[in-house]
Design goal:
Elements lengths: L6 H46 L1 H4 L5 H6 L4 H8 L1 E7 L5 E2 L4 E12 L5 E13 L4 E4 L12
Antiparallel strand pairs: 1-3, 2-3, 3-4, 4-5
């Protein structure tokens, strides 16, 4: 026996499937937008650390964190004594909640006075600001006073 679907029922089903598809696409777009912003931020931050120095990288730190923990003159002096010679983000950022990622980076720094090279490990915490479509570094700049030769 053949079943006939009435035109209203057919249109109703198409409407619901269209609405569901649109909702899924929009949520996917938001995720894509967040992921694109993360990828862009990770590359820009790595470039800032590697080529422009830690003072430029400071702009990636959440403004609230910068205000609560401003760089001291000693921090600035330490940053000026080193040149970053390597930045290895390993496997990249790892999700740690919906709008948060963690990343462990090994940064090789060379003392410009002694040419001594050492590696520091930077445990980064990044949070996403959905209103601004922007990722902020919550963990602050790395502690370059630690490290191994």
């Amino acid at each position: 026996m053949r079943r006939v679907i009435g035109p209203m029922l057919l249109w109703s089903g198409l409407l619901w499937s269209g609405l569901l598809s649109s909702a899924l696409l929009l949520s996917g777009c938001a995720t894509d937008k967040r992921n694109d912003a993360l990828e862009h931020t990770m590359i820009e931050y790595a470039n800032a650390v590697r080529w422009d120095g830690f003072e430029a990288a400071q702009q990636f730190v959440d403004p609230k964190v910068r205000e609560a923990h401003p760089l001291s003159s000693l921090d600035l002096a330490r940053f000026k004594q080193v040149q970053v010679s390597g930045y290895d983000d390993g496997n990249g950022p790892i999700p740690d909640g919906e709008n948060q990622v963690r990343q462990v980076v090994q940064i090789s720094v060379t003392n410009i006075h002694t040419q001594t090279v050492r590696t520091i490990v930077d445990h980064q915490l990044w949070k996403y600001d959905a209103e601004k479509n922007h990722w902020w570094l919550e963990s602050g700049l790395p502690d370059i006073s630690q490290g191994t030769n």
